[in-house]
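Section 5.1 Outputs to date
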Amino acid sequence: MNWSAISAIFLALAVGTGAFGAHGLRDKLGAYEMGIWEKAVFYQFMHSLGMLIVSLLPRTGTFTANSASTVCWLLSAGVLIFCGSLYTLALTGVRTLGAITPIGGVGFIAGWLLLAYYFIVQRS
């Protein structure tokens, strides 16, 4: 899987969804919904940037491609589930979608903890 390309696409989509929220949804969503939208954009941007960095680590010899790929899978799942559920919640107002959001958060946390583990093991 080309995680660098996927990260770049996620980053482009973060810019696009941020602009869409600021310009296309400003008068259509309330303050609460805009806050949810902005949080989704922020988390998508930060974790996609993290994915891009992780995807480059095998090129430096820091980790194997397999290790980086596992972290990127978890972060990617986090972006899709966490951010996707927040985007949908902001647009639809369906609050039950909030039950899905923590699953994406677990993906983020697991990805970063796995990366920390790889750093610790690598130093041993």
